[in-house]
Amino acid sequence: MRTSGVLLFIAYLGFISLGLPDAAHGINWPFVRAEFSVPMGWLGLVIAAGGVGYLMSSFSVGYLINRFGVGWLLVVSSVLVSCGLFGFYFSVSFVIFVLFSVVIGMGSGAIDAGLNAYAAEHFSTRHMNWLHAAFGVGATAGPIIATTVLVSFSQNWRLGYAVLAAILFVMALVFLFSRHLWESDKHAPKKADMSDENLGPVTQLQALKHPVIRFQIAFFFLYSGVEVGVGQWAFTVMTESRGISLASAGTWVAVYWGALAFGRAIFGFLVERFPVDQLLRLCLLGVALGTLLFTFSMTPYTSYLGLALMGFCAAPIFPCMISQTATRVGRRYSVHAIGFQMSAAVTGAMTLPFLSGLIGGEFGLTSLSVSFLVYALVLLGLFQIIVKRAV
């Protein structure tokens, strides 16, 4: 196997391992909260703490890669995630548990942004879509592992986190022994603009002043807010304002997430047969149409169609926009830009669903779904601006 094939295989493993811890909290939380005697809603503190750690590392990933290289960044970050998960196993109080969530967030943010930055520069757009689909494989496997441990070992939630920690430690070893491959000159960028390579790296502040980067930060902020917000609020909207049964609403929310994962696999075949920007424009129009159908639903089936269309059309947007970053802003800026974009995505996923919930609580659930339609239309406008102003 060629070195590039080895790195591609390792990247897939990296994205799978990155997804493993994400959904495990949903399985273990009832047992965690019972042991530490905290309210059910305090899961939000754990998630927020992880988000803070993620933002800290992903925002700085450009500096870290320029300073230490991709290989060592992935090694240290994987060790951080592993240590954080082992920390869950040994936690004696909820405060310590939350602090280890910050550690996991820091490691995950660096891995996520680092792998995305490397993949955007060295791998095709097709593989970028499949890499993000691999993350979904990990996010699916994590709950299965946690559930299996709970059932097999007398509801020992600590052991479930320890198993995940061991897997991440093995991944750290894989990154350690392959670290020299990530820096190899054999992997010259395939898509980046090389005309300014001799000018040297730029600083974070210089990157933030780049107009296209600022628009892309806004784009990722809104996109993640739409993707996560629709998944969080669709069930409530359908059951509490449209009279749709719990079973049907739950099924179609699952269809939404399934269409997102399935779409990334399908678009992996399509992105190299059509111009990427044309495909993105059509998908953004599809998301806006799906949001429109869901918002002004005349029948339950209109809601269902809107959800399925949103999920499928949203599938390639995130990986394709990441993959096109170096092309749009230039290689010197791309590593910083991807770190900023990952940070913006996490911030949007944490804040926009909350903002839409406040709007829904004040003006009714219909206004909540209208807010996502507004976000989708603004996304389409931002994309047009980014395409026109790209280098």
UniProtKB/TrEMBL annotation:
Annotated membrane topology: Multi-pass membrane protein
Domain called Major facilitator superfamily (MFS) profile: residue spans: 7-391
Cellular compartments annotated: Endomembrane system
Family of this protein: Belongs to the major facilitator superfamily.
Keywords attached to this entry: Membrane, Transmembrane, Transmembrane helix, Transport
MF (Gene Ontology): transmembrane transporter activity
Gene Ontology CC terms: endomembrane system; membrane
One of the Pfam families matching this protein, by short name: MFS_1
Highest taxon in the source lineage: Bacteria
Record-given protein name: MFS transporter
InterPro entries, per database record: MFS, MFS_dom, MFS_trans_sf, MFS_Transporter
Organism whose genome encodes this protein: Marinomonas profundi
Transmembrane stretches, start-end: 42-65, 72-90, 96-118, 130-153, 159-177, 217-238, 244-267, 279-298, 304-323, 335-359, 365-387
